[in-house]
Amino acid sequence: MAVFRYKGMKPSGKEVNGLLDAASEREARQQLKNQDIYLTEFREDSLSSAQKSSTKSSVWNLSWGKKTSAQERIVFTRQLATLLSAGFPLVEALKAVEEQIKTGYLRQVITELRSAVVEGQALSTVMSRFPAVFPAYYFNLVRAGESGGALETVLEQLAEVMEAQAAMRSKLISAMIYPLIMAVSGFLILVFLMSVVVPRVVQVFQDTQQALPLITRSLLAISDFFVAWGVLLIIGLMISTLLFSLWAKSEKGRPRFERILFRTPFVGTMMTRIITL
């Protein structure tokens, strides 16, 4: 995804400008065309250009500068809902939230939201231009709230849902930390035993010049493997873990990873219990 800055004119003659989040220049131009905006200036925003990843892979295209944390989205949604419930007009509510956020990509997005709403555009329409910040379910629910005249109610419900998701994620991480530590510790102990302890013990038997039992010879073969390849094995495991983590966090990988977890014996049951807590 990239951010594009544009200036243009509506059929009514009204000048418009702002930022647009899109996967490509072609997609961005098509979105603006669908909004009946005649472009007079169009370029990729400097913030996006400076932070573009060197590869287009969904695993490596992290776009760090364009990321917003779940907590930031929760705070934004909750504050906006509270201000709207208190009777603030949407533009003033967005301005108040914007002033609370000093820096970062989210502030830039909120600035664009406010500018577009001032120009008469629907909040949900502008949100749909920033899928990295507002997922499809988010701006679709906002659109429903706008249509039903219950925007503040929808935002409050969104904040509650996101808070519940964050709490579930925290519980899941806490529940998985201990087994993960035990697994890693067990693997490291195994490497130590096979690389250091077993060779010394086997050497004692070899010094007696007696025929080694099959089990001992098997342990010795495994020990030789760890001595020769142990370091590379650990490095490979670390790289594989990093790649898997990036895939599990990616847009395509996360749903598949979650399906795998829910279908895994014991883990799926534990996750279901955590969700229902």
Description:
The chain is mainly α and 277 residues long. Among the domains are: 1-52; 166-275, no CATH class. 68% of the residues lie in helices and 8% in strands. The protein contains eleven helices and three strands; from the N terminus they run ββαβαααααααααα. It has helices at 25-34, 46-50, 70-85, 90-100, 105-118, 123-127, 136-148, 151-207, 214-249, 253-263, 267-275, and strands at 2-9, 15-22, 38-44. The chain has a three-stranded antiparallel beta sheet. α3 packs across α4 (90-100), α3 packs antiparallel against α8 (151-207) and α10 (253-263) crosses α11. The longest helix is centred in the middle third of the chain and has 57 residues, at 151-207. It is elongated and about 100 Å long. The two termini are 36 Å apart. The model is unreliable at 47-65 (pLDDT under 50).
